[in-house]
């Protein structure tokens, strides 16, 4: 029997020679979820002027403890005049701190009298003032290359008046389901058939991982037809993904089709679920190549394989570090298990307690039980030839997005 390939070797082979895709300009209004191809520099200071952090009174610290007349009223969006000596200014949150003032007293600490505003004696210079450039200085790096543009980053761009950025082109992905027995929902099942749960599941994951699905197809149980389909897919896509057909059955034609057309880097990995997982490359007429990932037809194996291999590959094509690796969390196991020759990736739910993270494993970890993936928010990594008992500390890979 052929030796099973370790996960680290599979990832190294998968990512060998991967170069980031080209960049393209894009309006910031359309850039949500895209990956920056180059750093963005700040055009202006944020905030652009010293402003008040709350409603209150602006004054000179030298006048603290005095009863001062109000010389001006400053609302947000209004220009401030220099502060008249021996006076204070009524100011509101976001209002420009007038020249000459060096602190703001919140209105709850001020006493309004007929003679003026009596202010506390114990004040500190700079109290309740947001200084110009505190957040961002003009000319500094606003956002780094490789950042995925989510809500806060989009707000940062808008705050600078930036309307266009350069982003990585989304990787084009072809998804091919193998097996005559697999049919689409909406069609009555005949004996021996099953519905295609892989297509919607992987479509969503591909989108989450930054890919653009350019082709959906079904490969019949025929070697030549599978070859033709793979050739067409490689012409259209940066990445060709198949589900099923990579095992050793007489009707498993994907593996021999890939071997006859291009290069199969690895097949049969030392992991569970997902041992029959193939990685390779398919040639293009222009002399380039499309990456190939053959996921098992079993939906649970496909789900786990997508997180372990599709996500880092798409992350490398996008030059996005956050996608290239999953966040690791160490948690206390609340389950028992034992492994043999393969590393296990158990579907678990992480709970965060005062004593630290706790991992609860889904009761049935069989690779045919897709229910184990629905509520899981992490994969517990159990090394080969090991035993886990409740209380042991385990590495868990976080399956939720960071942003």
TrEMBL record:
<dbReference type="Pfam" id="PF03453">
    <property type="entry name" value="MoeA_N"/>
</dbReference>
<comment type="pathway">
    <text>Cofactor biosynthesis; molybdopterin biosynthesis.</text>
</comment>
<dbReference type="Pfam" id="PF00994">
    <property type="entry name" value="MoCF_biosynth"/>
</dbReference>
<comment type="function">
    <text>Catalyzes the insertion of molybdate into adenylated molybdopterin with the concomitant release of AMP.</text>
</comment>
<protein>
    <recommendedName>
        <fullName>Molybdopterin molybdenumtransferase</fullName>
        <ecNumber>2.10.1.1</ecNumber>
    </recommendedName>
</protein>
<dbReference type="InterPro" id="IPR008284">
    <property type="entry name" value="MoCF_biosynth_CS"/>
</dbReference>
<dbReference type="InterPro" id="IPR001453">
    <property type="entry name" value="MoaB/Mog_dom"/>
</dbReference>
<keyword id="KW-0501">Molybdenum cofactor biosynthesis</keyword>
<dbReference type="InterPro" id="IPR005110">
    <property type="entry name" value="MoeA_linker/N"/>
</dbReference>
<dbReference type="InterPro" id="IPR005111">
    <property type="entry name" value="MoeA_C_domain_IV"/>
</dbReference>
<dbReference type="InterPro" id="IPR036135">
    <property type="entry name" value="MoeA_linker/N_sf"/>
</dbReference>
<feature type="domain" description="MoaB/Mog">
    <location>
        <begin position="174"/>
        <end position="316"/>
    </location>
</feature>
<comment type="similarity">
    <text>Belongs to the MoeA family.</text>
</comment>
<dbReference type="InterPro" id="IPR036688">
    <property type="entry name" value="MoeA_C_domain_IV_sf"/>
</dbReference>
<keyword id="KW-0500">Molybdenum</keyword>
<keyword id="KW-0460">Magnesium</keyword>
<dbReference type="InterPro" id="IPR036425">
    <property type="entry name" value="MoaB/Mog-like_dom_sf"/>
</dbReference>
<keyword id="KW-0479">Metal-binding</keyword>
<keyword id="KW-0808">Transferase</keyword>
<dbReference type="InterPro" id="IPR038987">
    <property type="entry name" value="MoeA-like"/>
</dbReference>
<dbReference type="Pfam" id="PF03454">
    <property type="entry name" value="MoeA_C"/>
</dbReference>
């Amino acid at each position: 029997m052929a030796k099973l390939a370790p996960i680290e070797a599979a990832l190294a082979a998968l990512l060998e020679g991967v170069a980031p895709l080209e960049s393209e300009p894009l309006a910031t209004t359309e850039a949500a979820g895209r990956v920056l191809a180059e750093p963005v520099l700040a055009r202006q200071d944020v905030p652009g002027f010293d402003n008040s952090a709350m409603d209150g009174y602006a004054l000179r610290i030298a006048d603290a403890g005095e009863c001062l007349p109000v010389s001006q009223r400053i609302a947000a969006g209004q220009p401030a005049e220099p502060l008249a000596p021996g006076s204070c200014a009524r100011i509101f949150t976001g209002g420009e701190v007038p020249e000459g003032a060096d602190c703001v007293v919140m209105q709850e600490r001020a006493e309004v009298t007929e003679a003026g505003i009596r202010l506390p004696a114990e004040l500190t210079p700079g109290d309740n003032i947001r200084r110009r450039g505190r957040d961002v200085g003009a000319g500094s790096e606003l956002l780094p290359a490789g950042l995925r543009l989510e809500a806060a980053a989009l707000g940062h761009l808008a705050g600078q008046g930036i309307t266009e950025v350069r982003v990585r082109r989304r990787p084009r992905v072809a998804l091919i389901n193998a097996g005559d027995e697999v049919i689409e929902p909406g069609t009555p099942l005949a004996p021996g058939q099953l519905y295609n749960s892989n297509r919607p599941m992987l479509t969503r994951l591909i989108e989450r991982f930054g890919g653009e699905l350019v082709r959906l197809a079904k490969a019949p149980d025929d070697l030549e037809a599978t070859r033709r389909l793979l050739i067409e897919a490689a012409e259209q896509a940066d990445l060709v993904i198949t589900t099923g057909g990579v095992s050793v059955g007489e009707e498993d034609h994907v593996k021999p089709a890939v071997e006859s057309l291009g290069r199969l880097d690895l097949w049969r990995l030392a992991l569970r679920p997902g041992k029959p997982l193939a990685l390779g490359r398919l040639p293009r007429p222009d002399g380039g190549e499309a990456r190939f990932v053959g996921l098992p037809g079993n939906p649970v194996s496909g789900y786990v394989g997508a997180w372990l291999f599709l996500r880092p590959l798409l992350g490398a094509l996008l030059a996005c570090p956050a996608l290239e690796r999953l966040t690791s969390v160490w948690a206390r196991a609340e389950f028992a298990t034992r492994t043999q020759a393969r590393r296990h990736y158990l579907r678990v739910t992480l709970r965060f307690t005062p004593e630290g993270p706790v991992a609860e494993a889904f009761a049935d970890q069989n690779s045919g039980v897709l229910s184990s993936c629905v509520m899981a928010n992490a994969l517990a990594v159990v090394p080969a030839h090991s035993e886990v008992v409740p209380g042991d500390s385990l590495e868990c890979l976080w399956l939720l997005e960071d942003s």
